[in-house]
Amino acid sequence: MRLDKVLGNLGIGSRKEIKEMARRGRITVNGNAAFDSASHVNPYVDVLEVDGERVVYRQYIYLLMNKPAGLISATEDSREQTVVSLLEPEDEAFHPFPVGRLDKDTEGLLLLTNDGQLAHELLSPRKHVPKGYYARVAGRVSEADVRAFAGRIQLDDGYICMPAELVILNVEEVSSEVEITIYEGKFHQVKRMFEAVGKTVLYLRRFRMGNLELDEDLPPGTYRELTIEELSLLRSR
């Protein structure tokens, strides 16, 4: 790969900036100054340094975000602020995208990556990757609702949902706390499933996707890279 492309993909700078860095001798390849930023290198073999600091190349990035309410799950939008706006420049340089969508007012686990193959595996309707949510619902959720979710709930457009797992955590006079696991990802599915049984979702947070769980120590609006163990869990379904 061209040296400027390798460094540009890592967010080191623009092609013009990297060219100037090379001209000034700030970039070395295997200990030798690389004055030509258009020269070719093997980023997996050659030792690259910028200002004396080692640069390790990688192709993919995997980010675990605790999405806050108020942002949309997209890379760009002309009217709304997107989750990508929360990324640091060095992470945004990899051009990661959200794997699936969370509604604007839904919080919780959101994976961002530039690994298209993994995203396809997680989103493919044939894979039935489980997604777990915590919800606060207006009304008293009952065992009848649990049975309905385990059956075949019909949405407002006629779509018949796959069986879902509904667990009642707490029931109060005017609201209930529940956990729900679904195995598909239709538009506003959780909210529409509750509407089908005459209830309204007041708050929704995703805490699981496949075998990956939300890091509860991650405040809303922040993110971190997946650990090697988490990435292995995500791939082992």
From TrEMBL:
Keyword RNA-binding annotated: yes
Record CDD domains: PseudoU_synth_RsuA (cd02553), S4 (cd00165)
Any one annotated GO CC term: cytosol
Q: Which Pfam families match?
A: PseudoU_synth_2, S4
Alphabetized, the UniProt keywords read:
Isomerase, RNA-binding
- One GO BP: enzyme-directed rRNA pseudouridine synthesis
Limits of the RNA-binding S4 domain = 1-61
Single GO MF descriptor: RNA binding
Query: Which InterPro entries does the record associate with it?
Result: PsdUridine_s_RsuA/RluB/E/F_cat, PsdUridine_synth_cat_dom_sf, PsdUridine_synth_RsuA/RluA, PsdUridine_synth_RsuA/RluB/E/F, PsdUridine_synth_RsuA/RluB_CS, RsuA_PseudoU_synthase, S4_RNA-bd, S4_RNA-bd_sf
| Enzyme Commission number | 5.4.99.-
Question: Into which EC class is this enzyme placed?
Answer: isomerase
Similarity-based family: Belongs to the pseudouridine synthase RsuA family.
Q: NCBIfam families in the record, alphabetically?
A: pseudouridine synthase
Protein name, please? Pseudouridine synthase
Q: Which organism encodes this protein? A: Alicyclobacillus mengziensis
